[in-house]
Amino acid sequence: MNNLEGRVIVITGGSGGIGIVASELMAERGAHVVLAELDGDRADIEAKRLSNKGLKATAIQTDVADKKSVGAMVEEVSSRLGRIDGLVNNAAMFSRVPMSRVGSLEITEAEWDKMMEINVKGVWNVCSAVVPVMKTQGYGKIVNISSGTALKGSPSRIHYVTSKAAVIGYTKSLAMEVGEHNVYVNCIAPGSTLSEEDPTPAIIAVREKAATSRCIKRVQTPEDLAGPIAFFVGPDSDFITGQTLVVDGGSCLH
Ligand SMILES: NC(=O)c1ccc[n+]([C@@H]2O[C@H](COP(=O)([O-])OP(=O)(O)OC[C@H]3O[C@@H](n4cnc5c(N)ncnc54)[C@H](O)[C@@H]3O)[C@@H](O)[C@H]2O)c1
Predict the structure, then answer these.
(1) What pLDDT shows up at residue 142?
(2) Which of 133, 179, 206, 213 has its CA 20 to 30 A from that of 197?
(3) Residue 241: domain span
(4) Is any atom of ligand 1 closer than 6 Å to the C-beta of 89?
(5) Structure confidence at residue 254 (pLDDT)
(6) Hey, which of 10, 12, 18, 114 would you mutate to test ligand 1's pocket, going by the most ligand atoms within 8 Å of its Cβ?
(7) pLDDT tens digits along 11-67
(8) From the CA of 226, how far away is ligand 1's center (Å)?
(9) pLDDT of 218 higher than 90
């Protein structure tokens, strides 16, 4: 399956748990992937690892919450690779940039603001820089990563859930705005996924518990999300836009 051959795809948080697995699959399908990642060192290591396997990958240290950093990344991709066909807004305050899993009254104002800066404004920042490139090309595919918690709610981390609900509304509105330019915007809502590098027993217990509420009774892994992400940045989804696909083994049935 080389259906991403020749495409340049930017993935934010591209060297994180889900990000790197999706990046590798998209590169295996022929894309040149750009790992736009806050942790530049890890992105460099991962891009080199993919390159050593004969895949096309570039790392660019990027902070999605910072408009200047995003602008510089998009300029670098445009000048080095000439185009941007796909964008995966995957970066988030989640595990590698950790959040507090506490009740709403225990969240600090600083953490609330940081969550919105990365998870909501970050998506807007990157789309705002990439959409003009896609409009000029007359084609582009954007995939935003939300969370199943935005549809189901959660008894803790309300700031994260709120940020991920915003991503769903953002997806629908941007799809309406840019469709006439042949730019597609879709969203994936993952279930609880074992994406941590060194998961603690407590995290493993959380992921195993999530499996019990699914139709498919097993722990979700980043590999479960890589295919759907590749589908939305590829040609097989060329009449789908503004949609949210829940990928959680059948926990949230909507
Ligand atoms: N793992 C799950 O259970 C789960 C469930 C639902 C949704 N998600 C979503 O999936 C996506 C990937 O999550 P993950 O599990 O791989 O977590 P992760 O923490 O491993 O990955 C997130 C990546 O984003 C990067 N990042 C954070 N802030 C950034 C910034 N300001 N600029 C650029 N990069 C930044 C991190 O360094 C990290 O590499 C996230 O959007 C997350 O909210 C995860």
Answers:
(1) 99
(2) 213
(3) 8-247
(4) no
(5) 82
(6) 18
(7) 999 999 999 999 999 999 999 999 999 999 999 999 999 999 999 999 999 999 999
(8) 14
(9) yes
For residue 122, give the ligand 1 atom closest to its CA: 31
pLDDT in tens, 83-131: 999 999 999 999 999 999 999 999 999 999 999 999 999 999 999 999 9
In this structure, are strands 56-61 and 86-89 parallel, antiparallel, or unpaired? unpaired
What type of residue is 147? S
Token pair 């953002």 is found at 170
In a domain, 163, yes or no: yes
CB of residue 117 inside a 6 A radius of ligand 1: no
Query: What is the CA(180)–ligand 1 centre distance, in A?
Result: 30
In a domain, 1, yes or no: no
Residue 9: what pLDDT?
A: 99
Ligand 1: does its nearest atom lie under 6 Å from the Cβ of 12? yes
Q: Which of 195, 244, 248 to mutate to test the pocket of ligand 1 (most atoms within 8 A of CB)?
A: 195
Residue 58 lies in a domain: yes
> The domain spanning residue 83 has which CATH number?
3.40.50.720
Q: Answer yes or no: 160 catalytic.
A: yes
Number of domains in the chain: 1
- The answer to whether residues 207 and 195 touch, using CB atoms and an 8 Å cutoff, is no
Q: Decide if 219 is inside a domain.
A: yes
